Amino acid sequence: MLTALLDNVALQIMLVGALVGIASTLVGTFLVLRGTSMLSDAIGHSIVFGIVIVWLITHQQSGPVQILGAALAGVLTVFLTELLVSTRRVKKDAAIGLVFPVLFSIGVLLLNLYARDVHIDTHTVLLGEIGFVWLDTVTLGDYRVPRSLLSMGAMTLLNAAFVVLFFKELKLATFDEALAKALGLAPGLLFYALLLLTSGTAVAAFDAVGAVLFVAFVIVPPSTAYLLTDRLWLMFLYGIAVSIASSVSGYALAVAWDVSIGGMMAVMTGVFLMLAFLAGPRYGVVAQLLRRRGQRRHNEIRTLAVHLYNHEGGPEQGEENVIRALRDHLRWDAAKAVGVVQRGSDQRLIVREGEALRLTSRGREMAREILDPSGRRSA
Asked: Transmembrane stretches, by residue range (predicted)?
């Protein structure tokens, strides 16, 4: 029975982590594509201001009113940032750095002045503790369900519904805002709606992973997906997969090493980002190195084909179309010259007859295309 209970607790923790990642990916993908992903960091800090203001007005520590108030505080952060940027005297990154520390500081001061005895802990808001989500539950039928699981499940469904309903509009507003305005799609309104959902997700997540770790889930899985594909719908799928994998592997490693669960989940998102950066099939470092190596080798064969073609049939053919001449005229060492000749031979572009080199009809055609791409040169 104890084993079953522990397994159930582990499942609850991983589900909450996965839902935080999925909900964050759904909104974070557009923030990453717009180049405004650091707004999530500003929102993650400024919601403390919204939480305190809502408590001062309603004395509610949780519930939809608090989520809405904190979400509006996130939108206020963005509004003030855009207001500073509109003056053209402050750049956007500087404006973000000016606005959210002010709101966060005001929130902390109000918390210490007027809500000192209330259970609103700034440490918990920023860092959270996902390992304790199973202690705060509500009853659904015959089951006790973590409150964070319900709140994150609701935010995930809300974010998914928003993305599905306005997918075309969001896509157009993200990639071509001018065209979206011309078509009357109100990209500014869509952006603020997206930020409102981002703020709501941050508030729903702070009990579990904390606002700071929420930022990792907003930025890193979409960024990882961006390294793997250029298709928007695939970015969502890859980002969701990274979120789930980070939640499961992060929990397992945190238990094995006795470290912070939420912190390890965030670390695992970074691990997956590094893997995509290194081994991504298109933009990964290894793939780019292999492509450059392949292109370099291809260019070496093209250079050899042109060299042989230019001297073919001329009086200097016997001296130029030999391996020894490649070292003298193309500045290739012996090993490189032999290697290029071998690759050309394997591709049936060159025939080697002792030291002499001769183009095949296929190699000759390649050289003609290089020297005269328009095809005007006679055969």
From this structure: 12-32, 39-58, 64-85, 94-115, 149-167, 179-197, 203-220, 232-257, 263-285
